[in-house]
């Protein structure tokens, strides 16, 4: 299913700045791009559409406005939309309802991770709580110099539950640093995020970071979509499986994929020193 070019989302702007690249902006600037339940549901819809759109080969995610990439969950709105604000009730049934709600939230954000296309996340300004969950689900992370990040959940009396605690230890090699920021909820800078490997680039401003992300996405979009999407799939599989399991999966994957026209075009292009063009997938 392709995302119609004329489609307008309620909480996100989706534009196509260069061929085969989609730019998704979180668009709730009046509330510092904090999320409500309709937003996390729509977030999943956006990335499910982009995943299957043959005219999209790479995605950039950023936050609209200058103050915040995302300031987390809009707790006040969420309490009114869900059972978070309810008192009393039988504990087992209330817990079951909350479990379903958390699963729904997790699945919405995880749609970015399972999106077939590589996603470059650009953070700037306030990037707290849910911002970390979202960034952890991206493939590549850039940050503006002014980015202030925090795994904020312990400060509101809970453990982070939308993906940071599952993904951050697999992104950053230092367990000590991960526990440092997750247990303390302290704010850390873009430069610190770069030092530990959470982000791969820090740029002077949000504008420059978005520009560089779109440039990188354009480079990815010129490559074979079979090769790029296969590489994302195999890297994510490697993260969650043993070396032996991943080698076996890779062999099975490529037994099919190296028979594609893209592989032939890639080989011929390398030999002739001419950049090949690839068909939509």
Automatic annotation (TrEMBL):
Quick check: keyword Transmembrane in the entry? Answer: no
* Chief place where the protein resides: other
| SUPFAM superfamilies tied to this protein | ClpP/crotonase
Q: Which GO terms describe its biological process?
A: fatty acid metabolic process
> Where is it localised?
Peroxisome
Q: In which pathway does it act?
A: Lipid metabolism; fatty acid beta-oxidation
Belongs to which family? Belongs to the enoyl-CoA hydratase/isomerase family.
Annotated protein name in UniProt: Probable DELTA3,5-DELTA2,4-DIENOYL-COA ISOMERASE (ECH1)
């Amino acid at each position: 299913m392709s995302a119609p070019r004329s489609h307008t989302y309620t909480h996100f702007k989706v534009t196509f700045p260069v061929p085969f690249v989609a730019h998704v902006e979180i668009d709730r600037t009046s509330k510092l791009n904090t999320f409500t339940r309709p937003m996390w549901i729509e977030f999943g819809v956006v990335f499910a559409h982009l995943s299957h759109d043959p005219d999209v080969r790479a995605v950039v995610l950023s936050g609209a406005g200058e103050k915040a990439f995302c300031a987390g969950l809009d707790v006040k709105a969420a309490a009114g939309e869900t059972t978070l604000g309810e008192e009393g009730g039988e504990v087992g049934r209330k817990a079951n309802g909350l479990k379903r709600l958390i699963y729904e939230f997790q699945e919405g954000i995880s749609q970015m991770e399972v999106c077939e296309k590589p996603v470059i996340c650009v953070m700037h300004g306030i990037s707290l709580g849910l911002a970390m969950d979202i960034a952890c689900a991206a493939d590549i992370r850039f940050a503006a110099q002014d980015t202030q990040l925090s795994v904020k959940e312990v400060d509101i009396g809970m453990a982070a539950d939308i993906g940071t605690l599952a993904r951050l230890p697999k992104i950053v090699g230092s367990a000590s640093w991960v526990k440092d920021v997750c247990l303390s909820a302290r704010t850390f800078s873009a430069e610190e995020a770069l030092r530990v490997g959470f982000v791969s680039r820090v740029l002077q401003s949000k504008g420059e970071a978005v520009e560089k992300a779109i440039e990188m996405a354009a480079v990815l979009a010129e490559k074979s979509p079979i090769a790029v999407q296969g590489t994302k799939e195999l890297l994510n599989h490697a993260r969650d499986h043993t070396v032996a399991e991943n080698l076996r999966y890779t062999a099975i994957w490529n037994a099919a994929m190296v028979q594609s026209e893209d592989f032939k075009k890639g080989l011929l292009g390398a030999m002739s020193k001419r950049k090949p063009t690839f068909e939509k997938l």
